[in-house]
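Pilot study result, target chain (350 residues):
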Amino acid sequence: KSRAFREELLERVRRISAFSHVAILRGVPLLNSGFSIPLLVEGRVYQRDEDLVSGIYNASSGPALEALGIRLVRGRPFEPTDHATAEPVALLNEAAVKRFFPDEDPLGRRIASGIPAALARGDSIPKELTQYTYARVVGIVADTRQFDLSYSPQPEVFYPFDQAMRHPMVQNSFALVARTRGEARSLLGTLRQEIRAVDADLPVDHLQTMDSVVRDTLRGQRFMVILLSAFAAVALILSALGIYTVVAWVVSQRTREMGIRLALGAPPVGVVRLVVTQALRPVALGLGLGMLAALACSRILAQYLSTISALDPGTYLLVATLLLATAAGACWIPARRAARVDPMLALRTE
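Predicted structure:
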């Protein structure tokens, strides 16, 4: 019944011209990434529980890679000829290749998802895990972030649905993925109608676009970003005000000195340049020390960043430029004002 439902649903949705790629997938990145099962490599010995390393188990039917935009790195994707009676095949993501085949080519090797009978203890282990069949690796796909954008991609193996484990957790739990030719949200109603046309009793309450899935995943990070941005903005404003006030006060205290220099024949432009240069030295030193402190703290912030690096040069350059420009203005404005005052008047005020 599950297979018949999948095939009829795929056939109905594929007839709709608004969809370019339609497929069935056991686990969708960021939404329902599936479950982990030990991944076995033919020819290797597994005698202890510590020898077993798990990988995310996934199954697909149709052009799932194209529908989700997952890039094929090497080899070939699943084809219609990979049916139940054909040779079992599998796809590995790059994380699985690095973990299970760090020094060899996985293409052509045979793998299986399961538990060796010698290590299967207890009655709670489904028989499908011990009655596994080896499948030949025919392709390598790019990594996806299965659980959260802040987590590194995990090893993952894909099997064709017709060759996948016959356990209900695999065969009866899956998602329909469809790439649209136009705006995706407007087609959710069409998908709901097609699903109900196949099975009117099936509840349809999890129709989402991948954009909305990503937004939901980033909800916690977005709150952290807003909170940190508010604190950062307050800190930046206080820093700019503090630098401006202190530097402007220090420069204003040199009015007598500037009057003497002007009285002795120094050009006003030269006096202003001298004062600004001398005042910016401690500011530049402070910015340098602040940059070092920010770099040291970047490891803490790295866990909250997914699309930019914690060492983003643009951010550091923008903050440093703003503070340096604030200090330069704090030097230049009072120094220029003092340089325009008559030297004798400046000396008398002191």
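One observation from the pilot: The mean pLDDT is 83. A full batch analysis is planned for the follow-on phase.
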